[in-house]
Amino acid sequence: TSFSQDEPSNLDEMPLMMSEEGFENDESDYQTLPRARVNQRQRGLGWFLLGGWKVLCGSCCDCLAHICRRKKELKARTVWLGSPEKCEEKYPKNGIKNQKYNIFTFVPGVLYQQFKFFLNLYFLVVACSQFVPSLKIGYLYTYWAPLGFVLTVTMVREAVDEVRRYQRDKEMNSQLYSKLTVRGKIQVKSSDIQVGDLIIVDKLDGETDWKLKVAVGCTQRLPAVGDLFSISAYVYAQKPQLDIHSFEGNFTREDTDPQIHESLSIENTLWASTVVASGTVIGVVIYTGKETRSVLNTSYAKNKVGLLDLELNRLTKALFLAQVVLSIVMVALQGFVGPWLSNLCRFVVLFSYIIPISLRVNLDMGKSAYGWMIMKDENIPGTVVRTSTIPEELGRLVYLLTDKTGTLTQNEMVFKRLHLGTVSYGTDTMDEIQNHIVKSYAQVTSQPSNGSTSGSTPSRKTQTSCPKVRKSVSSRIHEAVKAIALCHNVTPVYESHAIVNGETESAEADQDYSDDNRTYQASSPDEVELVRWTESVGLTLVNRDLNSLQLKTPSGQILSFHILQIFPFTSESKRMGIIVREELTGDITFYMKGADVAMASIVQYNDWLEEECGNMAREGLRTLVVAKKSLSEEQYQDFESRYNQAKLSIHDRGLKVAAVVESLEREMELLCLTGVEDQLQADVRPTLELLRNAGIKIWMLTGDKLETATCIAKSSHLVSRNQDIHVFKPQVSSRGEAHLELNAFRRKHDCALVISGDSLEVCLRYYEHEFVELACQCPAVVCCRCSPTQKAQIVTLLQQHTANRTCAIGDGGNDVSMIQAADCGIGIEGKEGKQASLAADFSITQFKHIGRLLMVHGRNSYKRSAALGQFVMHRGMIISTMQAVFSSVFYFASVPLYQGFLMVGYATMYTMFPVFSLVLDQDVKPDMALLYPELYKDLTKGRSLSFKTFLIWVLISVYQGGILMYGALVLFESEFVHVVAISFTALVLTELLMVALTIRTWHWLMVVAEFFSLGCYLASLAFLNEYFDLSFITTWPFLWKVSSITLVSCLPLYIIKYLKRKFSPPSYSKLSS
């Protein structure tokens, strides 16, 4: 498709591409156009009056917002080599920015996040009301000090997080890269890289997951690096998109005649943070900043709010209603006389203690304490709490969504089984294979090699001999091992022993093929393991470049093969192929290996493949079928011409290429079946069992193949042995198919579901609600071939449909969006780097730690916060009840019972420590919680903090407040002056006793806190002369009256608690007794 002029070629290519994309994206618009026109006709004056003005205002605001942050439409692009200034569009900067605020938005942003909560907004209003003289009650500091404290603490915490984010971004943006210019190499910062720059990537060490990448052919022939600037060439690339597994583009060089066109695919591209295994690479920048695949695939971190905080927010609204009702009742009893409106407001302010401002402070400090305890736990070393606001979520989880590779498995493979149809070799019989290989290669070399043909006669004979004669086992092993050693994408890399004056090439020059310093690199660990295995049985891969392969036989002879074509593994084809020509004999052979589903139809008829694949899968092995086909020179030449033609087509390139390759994939000779085991992480089985017993439903979301995912689900006991597995049809494309499949699935009971990403997409498009409902009843669900964005979609789906809490756990960059979308994200620091653990709310070092994190820490955090929150509310309600009784006795006067410092001191010095010491309380010992995970089920019902428990606390508060106030008034009719001293002392004592009543397991710090607070109170009595009369406090009547009031207010509760413990004990107390 080379044109003599350069103009038409662009024009011919461009409009077609654009028009196709246009049609794909605009389908929805075409459907909406006619309807929109109909609607506009009916608008008139009536419409405007009836609420059209609302719509208009709204749409104006939307327009303004749209203009302010207009999203640029993403288009396909043409990038000229080494000349960013030629780009006709403006592309985004290459900087990374993870911060939530900037200098100007920080204060408003944080304040908005705080006052979004009803609680804080309410306090702001109450505090501001104190500036109005008619509403002023007591001192300003009683209202402003607590509010100021809360806001300062929050601001500091947010600022620290923000600075940390800024430093991380700065570090990333200021990394230096080598850029090639006309004047040679220069260093540029990462944030200054532009589209069209030529960047040099050097050799580095790092990742474990190697992929083979291919350079553009025509630029390889240039004599020097600088010549890249003298040619006129451009890359035409598709628009930025989410799919990380595909890329379509063309490379065109214009200044030659005829023009050179080359097709570009995903294997011609590199990601930004790529590491090169050997040599250096010069690449042209195609996407930058927000348009790179990695950024497009990450979602923004949202501010996570725990369920407990939402529940407490609901309760505070209920309290607020109670407070308003109480104030109205008070004014009504007054008879609405005088300035009753201002009286009403004064009552609202007086009773504002019903809603305690210290609730947020206490809870926030509690959360920090839980975080500290989690990080200090020796049983789960290396655990980091990155989001301190949601530790209670760990105690309420119902769904756990986990990644597979690196999370459940170690991503380390071990070769376990070779099956040849009639005979199967396991780990204990590998030495037999070795003997066969040594023998067969000895035969080959022992014959006098007078000419190239005789060297390989044995193998030649077996191929051409009559097919009816069965081959000997030895020759079949020989063929199978040779196929496994040739059909792969593995490259051997040699570590140079001594670096001679800074040159590392010495190793390659010496052809130093010694075994001790060879490592293999490939994109999948399975392939590396297969090649390592062939090395262990005697056939070693010693060298590999783009067009040749060398194998070393047991006797040390080197066999060379010329690589003619490679067909890489893709998720659609599920197989990979290679065509090689043996240099010694000139034989052309097409080898192929792939998943049993894909290969079953390609290989010749046989009666054992399906059965054996099933057997291996049940053992949890990953299976690969290996096959071969010998080609004649003519067959190959015919194939090559058709293949090259298909590769240059612009439309449906993938389909055309696949069709040509499929013409070869017929009637192939089945060689063997291999089984490789992916080893599980430590203690995965007991951990999954623990979680399942705790009532947590586990979903495995993985990018892996359906077969592999099913294998791991079985071997990790995610699906128990006797459970059925329903495999959802992989290629469901239409609504009807989805309907049939869902119906088939509905008929099955208690079986695990395995579904692939594309089928899932179709089901969600048409039957979202039904599908989620069915899937949620399953004991386990496995989704395979999921893209990162899909993982996040599944999380949000569960949140919307079930209203239960979800937790996502993963270890790689592809799990980040899922981790951020979940209510609680856990990252594992694994081989795939730290990306997931940095984005997560909690990061752990091993999967097995999740059991303790949820059962022990999650349980404690939730139980403690629930107790703490309700107790702090009780503390506010009791004093409001006393205020109400006080006002009603004294002719409904809106006068405060306790002035200035007493109020501040009550909420801080006198009761803060004992109440806060509730964060040390635990109802079950950690070992018990892990031994009986069933206890965790109770937590998910949310019974520790509900309207029921809240009402019980309200009743207690009303009872106690009433007793304290009436008691003080009844017993001290004569000395009314002292009513404040008596009721306040009794109140403080009651609070301390109530804390003791609430505690389930004592801790020495709790005792200290109780006595410390009591001491503080007694000490402060001496200084508070304006409130207390010292001479009276030291008399006997005062002591016995206070004691009796306190006793009446607390004793009944102790008795009730004892009876309740005796007659209906909670589930955990049965265990601990």
Task: Report on the architecture of this protein.
The chain has 1073 residues and is α+β, with helices and mostly antiparallel strands. It is built from 38 helices and 28 strands. A 9-stranded mixed β-sheet has the order 9-28-27-26-10-22-25-24-23, with helices on both faces. Strands 12-11-21-20-19-18-17-16-15 form a 9-stranded antiparallel β-sheet, sandwiched between helices. A 4-stranded antiparallel β-sheet has the order 1-5-6-7, with no helix packed on it. β11 (409-419) and β12 form a beta hairpin. The longest helix is centred in the last third of the chain and has 41 residues, at 849-889. Residues 838-1065 form the P-type ATPase C-terminal domain. Residues 85-144 form the P-type ATPase N-terminal domain. Mg(2+) binds at residues 403, 405, 811, 815. It is a multi-pass membrane protein.
